[in-house]
Amino acid sequence: LGNTVLHILVLQPNKTFACRMYSLILAYDRNKEGPGSLELIPNNEGLTPFKLAGVEGNTVMFQYLMQKRKHNLWSFGPLTTVLYDLTEIDSWAEDQSFLELIVSTKKREARQILDLTPVKELVSLKWNMYGRPYFCFLALFYILYMVCFTMCCVYRPLKPRTGNKTSTRDNTIYVQKMLQESYMTYEDELRLVGELITVIGAVVILILEIPDILRVGAAKYFGQTILGGPFHIIVITYACMILVTMVMRLTSTTGEVVPMSFALVLGWCNVMYFARGFQMLGPFTIMIQKMIFGDLMRFCWLMAVVILGFASAFYIIFQTENPENLGQFYNYPMSLFTTFELFLTIIDGPANYDVDLPFMYSVVYFAFAIIATLLMLNLLIAMMGDTHWRVAHERDELWRAQVVATTVMLERKLPRCLWPRSGICGREYGLGDRWYLRVEDRVDPNKHKMMRYTEAFKAQDRDNYYNGLEKLEINKDTLYKKEPSALSLSRSTSRTSSHRGWEILKRNT
């Protein structure tokens, strides 16, 4: 019952009342330390009161709980060294990490906890010491891996075509080799090494991704931008395309160019995932994700309807015409592709002035140009501009959350020998087996006093400024008279406020 009340207090809007009642309940807790403490009992979702405060974005309760957990090590003048208890904060050996809970929640208030002590210092320590070097090495390794895969695709086994052309539009001169013919020379064996590296990399990607999907859940794993949702979909699809290409190569099935081309596009697009490790590029990838999965997905439905309707009309118009004179609409799939290019203004309207064009082509193309080019493309630009304005206010905050998510991911994937535990063991200071983070804080004793002086100066300047404005409103004869009065007003205002400010400093001294 006491643990349930603690969870309810975390969700209370009255933060002061909640903190006082929290302390009152813990005062009657018999097991204040150890696993039997009320603060360490999770709810049905596996969240303790401390983790619940982080997930809900209750910064007041979080700071209150952290003040209870800190230990002042020593103080010397304005310098103070504090030990913060990292229990439930550090992601080391935690099934449900506090940092991962914060970055995966949809509440923006929760991400503000990442800027509070000691979470900010812990994340900075982990990222600077281990996260950034490992992440840069992983990015370099992935780029080299993609270069290897690309070279294997460029030099894939092909042979000249021996059969006759089936039509005048048939333009194929090379075909895929059979499996027995693909690995005959030294160059083929060298390519085989690169292909084995590519396949092994795809298998490793699946082995690393599938456990996280089962642990977190597909909806949260693929749906959260901070956790890298769209990039996880891209890299898993890439790995599947590599395995499909391998099966088609082993069975000598024609058409391996389809999964191979998809894998090339997806694999190189996944390089943008590593931009989150750099402050200059990370926020822009967030902007791209928001636009693609927000504005562009909605716009594609409207674009598909327009293209389908006008492509059908173009195909019907040119169905009776000779395709040799105007072949952009010679069959229905080609009509869809040509209309798509016209929609994006990639090509101009196809026309052959040596022959007579149907009259309806001019009418339909005129309507298509008005709707597609002038209306819908400008609508997409306006939608993206609005999204850019909305996301620009929080993109840096989202990027910091992405850095935290990346740090937790690397800490989970890497062996313990490559990622030591952060912090200081409490046994060095007689505080038990818990781990603590040492934070040095500089406390300026005159800080609050100087803030009061500044506010006093501002208030006095503001009063004198408004009084001067009233005097200027009365004297509106000429502009020549206004400028000297304003000049004399500013001098008298600065002299008066400066004099009174020095009087305040003298009196306090």
TrEMBL record:
Q: Does the keyword ATP-binding apply?
A: no
Query: Which superkingdom does the taxonomy of this entry point to?
Result: Eukaryota
Q: Which UniProt keywords apply?
A: ANK repeat, Membrane, Metal-binding, Phosphoprotein, Repeat, Transmembrane, Transmembrane helix
Recorded GO molecular functions are:
calcium channel activity; metal ion binding
Cellular localization per UniProt? Membrane
Matching entries from InterPro entries are given as: Ankyrin_rpt-contain_sf, Ion_trans_dom, TRPV, TRPV5, TRPV5/TRPV6
Q: How does it sit in the membrane?
A: Multi-pass membrane protein
* NCBIfam families from the UniProt entry: trp
Instruction: Give the protein's recorded name.
Output: TRPV5 protein
Source organism of this protein record: Baryphthengus martii (Rufous motmot)
Upper lineage is: Eukaryota, Metazoa, Chordata, Craniata, Vertebrata
